[in-house]
Specification:
It contains ten helices and ten strands. It is α/β, with parallel strands linked by helices and about 250 residues long. It binds adenosine-5'-triphosphate and magnesium ion.
Length: about 250
């Protein structure tokens, strides 16, 4: 049976009187990678931000419909802090905190009450290994994270997100600002992570969606136009809009 880790039911999101997401329904399967694709402005980031309730912070934003995490309503049954522990997010631009590599990783676990150095050391090593960064930084854990390269900073942000053991990881164009080698490392990390996480990744790279995702959801103008297993969506899209988008995006 398919385990629907996140289920979206008739979700609409409005900023002021502009409808950004329009009656979206879909689900994200546990231990899978879903790619979200679509033109700039179609609402991909808004969808990820809503799943993490970052939209709570936007005064003029109105959300209707339901998002269920393990069948529980994220707006009614789960507090924002618990939600953000269970659902991590990585952004396009790496945003490490202005503190050491170690403290970046320990930040979340400390907030959640983990104080022991032995435990924090273990979390730091495990998450940095999972994010394919350990070998590069293990002798410099006290170094300020802002001194790392862009690709290393992004892997640190992934490690930081992993440090609180999220069940879902939202990645908003997490590799688009990186060189191909760093991007490839992060793709490997994602493939490894899906063993224990449900990943939803926004990407403008069709090649990346094809390489790493199990399912692809195509959005246009705030609506889901088509969704399918990735191989199927790219080889035999059913909707004219999808065909057109894939054709232009593949160049
Ligand atoms: N805080 C906000 N206030 C008002 N409008 C917003 C806000 N955030 C996003 N929007 C609008 O919502 C629409 C969708 O934006 P969103 O960032 O979700 O698009 P996107 O698909 O992620 O695009 P891109 O590929 O360029 O990142 C845009 O028209 C944008 O201007
Ligand atoms: Mg975006």
């Amino acid at each position: 049976m398919v385990n629907e880790k996140i289920c979206i039911q008739n979700l609409s999101v409005r900023y002021g009187d502009v409808n950004i997401l329009k009656d979206i329904s879909t689900f994200f399967k546990e231990n899978s990678i879903t790619a979200l694709i679509g033109s700039s402005g179609c609402g991909k980031s808004t969808l990820l931000r809503t799943i993490n309730r970052l939209t709570d912070l936007d005064g003029n934003c109105a959300v209707e419909g339901k998002i269920l995490l393990d069948k529980k309503d994220i707006f009614r049954d789960i507090g924002a802090n618990e939600l953000r522990k269970r659902v991590g997010m990585v952004f396009q631009k790496p945003n490490p905190f202005d503190m050491s590599i170690y403290d970046n990783i320990a930040f979340g676990p400390r907030i959640h009450g983990i104080k022991s150095k032995i435990d924090l050391d273990e979390i730091a090593e495990n998450t940095l290994r999972s994010a394919a960064l350990w070998d590069e930084v293990k002798d410099y854990l006290k170094k300020n994270a802002l001194k790392l390269s862009g690709g290393q900073q992004q892997r640190l942000c992934i490690a930081r997100a992993l440090a609180v053991k999220p069940e879902v990881l939202l990645m908003d164009e997490a590799t688009s600002a990186l060189d191909p080698t760093s991007a490839a490392k992060i793709e490997e990390v994602m493939l490894e992570l899906k063993q224990r996480c449900t990943i939803i990744a926004v990407t403008h790279s069709m090649a990346q969606a094809i390489r790493i995702s199990d399912k692809t959801v195509f959005l246009a103008n705030g609506m889901i136009i088509e969704e399918a297993d990735t191989a199927k969506l790219f080889t035999s899209p059913q909707e004219a809009k999808t065909k057109q988008f894939i054709k232009s995006a593949l160049g």
